[in-house]
Amino acid sequence: AGDAAAGKGKAAVCAGCHGANGVSMVPMYPNLAGQKAMYLENALKAYKAGQRTGGTAAMMAPQAAGLSDKDIADLAAYFSSL
Amino acid sequence: AGDAAAGKGKAAVCAGCHGANGVSMVPMYPNLAGQKAMYLENALKAYKAGQRTGGTAAMMAPQAAGLSDKDIADLAAYFSSL
Fold it and tell me: pLDDT grade, residue A25 (50/70/90)?
């Protein structure tokens, strides 16, 4: 499992769309707070692998592209802990 | 916007994976309760349009395939209201 504390340190860039506390202010952007960690990991990996296209995927894919598996696990642990 | 009451009537099939109250019991399946309605609509439309592949998309695509835009709006309204 990921390290939520490490994830918090990596989550600053996410806050712009998903909200500082993981609850987004924009209807198109999903809330992440309290979401299942494994689902968050799978979603980030899907964006990274190009398995999600259309809509906001065009914004998420570049964000995910730069993340390592550890980054992904840590971010997922962090947001699911909110 | 969708009709949450109508959405509740259409949500029975979703409960198996996403939980009767929109909080799933399975780590791979996302919680839907309180999620942004527009995001839920966009996600369902992406599954329906084949814009999401890999992982559990293979399970969601057939579920979404049979939904009309109204069904999607109603389901999104319902789950976001939980």
Answer: very high
B70 Cβ contact list (under 8 Å, min separation 6): B2, B6
Report yes or no: A72 and A45 within 8 Å, Cβ to Cβ.
yes
User: Mind listing the pLDDT tens digit for each residue in B26-71?
Assistant: 999 999 999 999 999 999 999 999 999 987 899 999 999 999 999 9
A16 contact partners, CB below 8 Å, separation of at least 6: none
Of all residues in chain A, the one with the smallest CA distance to B41 is A28
Contacts of B47 (CB under 8 A, 6+ apart): B57, B60, B61, B63, B64
Please list every residue in chain B whose beta carbon sits closer than 8 Å to the beta carbon of residue A52.
46, 51-53
> What is the ipTM for the molecules in this complex?
0.93
Closest by CA to A40, choosing from B29, B35, B49, B36, is B29
Domains and CATH numbers, chain B: 4-80 (1.10.760.10)
Would the pLDDT of A11 be above 90?
yes
A81/B contact by beta carbon, under 8 A: no
What is the percent of chain A with per-residue pLDDT over 70, rounded to a whole number?
A: 100
41-70 in chain B: CB under 8 A from chain A: 42-43, 45-46, 49, 51-57
